[in-house]
Amino acid sequence: MTIHIRLATEDDRPDLRELFLQARRATFAWLPSETFQLDDYDDQTRGERVLVAETDDGALVGFVALWEPDRFVHHLYLAAGQQRQGIGRALLHALGWPEQPLHLKCLRRNEAALAFYFKLGFVGIGQGQGADGEYVLLASQRVQGSG
């Protein structure tokens, strides 16, 4: 399966809303499912640069949302069954990582995501408590000799 990364378009919005809803309900199983709504995508990605990952047949299998002023990855989600295929890494690469640093928050209870980021060389630089639980503030490290 070949994955293509591109900027999201308005035509992608219905699929992105659904992917965002389903992925969060599956990922954050400790929270009540009604916590998540279909229109959350619109509210939580407003003003952000959104890149999508799609297959050759045009199916959206993931997305990343970046708050560009701070190089802050606000969201990175994959469709069910799409983990461990290099899609998350490809989305981060499309943002310029690892040459350009990135920051993000990850809930401590989201152990799979924490393992993913640590495997990629992200390091914990802080922690805190949010409405959904404890989180770790992570930062990527620049590649030696870059920038």
TrEMBL record:
It comes from the Bacteria. One of its GO terms (molecular function) is acyltransferase activity, transferring groups other than amino-acyl groups. Residues 3-144 form the N-acetyltransferase domain. PROSITE patterns: GNAT. Keywords: Acyltransferase, Transferase. PANTHER family: ACETYLTRANSFERASE, AMINOALKYLPHOSPHONATE N-ACETYLTRANSFERASE-RELATED-RELATED. This is Acetyltransferase (Putative).
